[in-house]
Amino acid sequence: MENQDNHSYDDIINLPNPTSTKHPRMPLSDRAAQFSPFAALTGHEAAIKETARRTDEKLMLSDEVIAELNEKLKLIAETIGTQQVVRITYFVPDNKKAGGAYISHAGYVKRIDKYEHTVVMEDKTVIPSEQISDIEGEMFGDMF
């Protein structure tokens, strides 16, 4: 009996693989895709990374700091065109979650738009005035 089981496929073991005349063979690259891992939770890993991404909380400025910033902006407005380098630190709110990031940008101020409440730099960077937390530059000297 055991001997019979070992030879039950002898009649077909050496036959060629059947090939369809109606359907072409699948390319190996497509065959491999059938066995690729399945991501049941599409986007889950990205959501975890987004949740883990840290943001800074916007600091509330005192009235004294706001007055100092206004004085510095006034001085900058008076000296536009004299190529005074300033470094402006401002808050950029995050589009996806609470908080944001503080960014420092250095360069020449091209103009201060009082209607739009923005500071426009020579390199076309636009900084919202209400987001500014600090302004530094040699032009301020020991004034502040």
TrEMBL record:
<feature type="compositionally biased region" description="Basic and acidic residues">
    <location>
        <begin position="1"/>
        <end position="10"/>
    </location>
</feature>
<protein>
    <recommendedName>
        <fullName>YolD-like protein</fullName>
    </recommendedName>
</protein>
<feature type="region of interest" description="Disordered">
    <location>
        <begin position="1"/>
        <end position="24"/>
    </location>
</feature>
